[in-house]
Structures are given as C-alpha cells and as structure tokens.
C-alpha cells in the first residue's frame, strides 16, 4: 500500500512532532506544580532523559506517546500501512530502548512513573479521571513502590 500524501508532506508532518515540551507533558507539569511538587524538565544527566525528574523522591516520570512507545491494546498505537519494515524496526528499537532504560534506572535505585498519552487525554476531558490519576501519582510518591504505569 502506498502513502496517501507526498513524501515531502510526510516529512514535514513527521518533523513537526516534538520530543520535549509536548502538550501532555506541559499539562501534567502544570498539574503537579499546582499541587506543590517540584521537578526538573528533560533531565539530561539522568538515564533515559526523563520528561520530569523529582529529585526529592528519586523518581523519573516519562510521558510516553502511545504511537511511538507502542502502548499495548491502545487505539493510538496503530501501525502505518506503508513502509512496514521501517516502522517495525523503529518500534522495536524504541521498545528495546525503553526496556533498557527501565532496567538501568531500577539498578540505580531511581523510581519510575510511565504515563501514557491516552491517559493524559482522558485526564484532560474528565475531572474525575484527572483527580484519580493525580491521587495515584501522589500515593506512589509517598509509598515505596518502584514502578507505576498509568
């Protein structure tokens, strides 16, 4: 199957996708800041360059795009119909990198929270979901668990 838009248009679309300061990341940062939590953004000296790092809690927070990080069972984690081999390699390397980073952080004693893009979308559209998710994050930060995926 061929792509429905030109290679130039596809390239332009793909280059517009940001890796820092995405809407889900900015939204979650705002909510956490308003609740009194302090963090650093896009920390380069922590393994995996987490979107947020809370030194006080030794916790790295990753806000993962469902498409790029292959959220299992999510409708946003679809596979493109063209250039299938490229996309399969790309997705496999992303998932391998995520597993490696997760293991390295665990070995360093850094706790981790992974928040999926679809979860943030639900939070934005439903105040009750937003409250529940923030409650889970706060419970995690106050507890002793090492990993939380939302």
Q: How does this model look, in words?
A:
There is one protein chain. The chain is α/β, with parallel strands linked by helices and 150 residues long. The chain has one domain (18-149): 3-Layer(aba) Sandwich (Endonuclease, Chain A). It has six helices and five strands; from the N terminus they run H-H-E-E-E-H-H-E-H-H-E. It has a five-stranded mixed β-sheet, sandwiched between helices. Strand 2 and strand 3 (59-64) form a beta hairpin. Helix 5 crosses helix 6 (127-142). The longest helix is centred in the middle third of the chain and has 24 residues, at 84-107. The protein starts with 6 loop residues before the first helix and ends with a strand.
Number of helices: 6
Order of helices and strands: HHEEEHHEHHE
Q: Residue share in helices?
A: 40-55%
- Average per-residue pLDDT, rounded, comes to 90
Query: What's the CATH topology name?
Result: Endonuclease, Chain A
The CATH class assignment is Alpha Beta
Q: What is the fourth-level CATH superfamily? A: VSR Endonuclease
Using the 3D structure, state the CATH architecture.
3-Layer(aba) Sandwich
Outline, from the CA principal axes?
Answer: globular
| Count of domain modules | 1
Radius of gyration: 17 Å
Query: Helices and strands: which structural class?
Result: alpha/beta
Give the distance, in angstroms, between the N- and C-terminal Cα atoms.
Answer: 34 Å
Would you report the number of β strands?
5
**Which spans of ≥5 residues are poorly predicted at pLDDT below 50?**
none
> Largest sheet, described in full?
5 strands, mixed
Strand content: 5-15%
């Amino acid at each position: 199957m061929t792509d429905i838009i030109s290679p130039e248009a596809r390239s332009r679309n793909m280059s517009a996708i940001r890796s820092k300061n995405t809407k889900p990341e900015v939204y979650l940062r705002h909510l956490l800041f308003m609740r009194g939590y302090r963090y650093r953004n896009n920390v380069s000296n922590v393994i995996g360059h987490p979107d947020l790092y809370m030194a006080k809690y030794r916790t790295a927070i990753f806000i993962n795009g469902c498409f790029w990080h292959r959220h299992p069972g999510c409708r946003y984690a679809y596979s493109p119909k063209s250039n299938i081999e490229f996309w399969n390699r790309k997705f496999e390397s992303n998932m391998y990198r995520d597993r490696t980073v997760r293991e390295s952080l665990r070995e360093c004693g850094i706790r981790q929270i992974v928040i999926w893009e679809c979860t943030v979308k639900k939070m934005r559209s439903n105040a009750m979901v937003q409250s529940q998710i923030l409650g889970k994050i706060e419970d995690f930060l106050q507890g002793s668990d090492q990993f939380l995926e939302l």
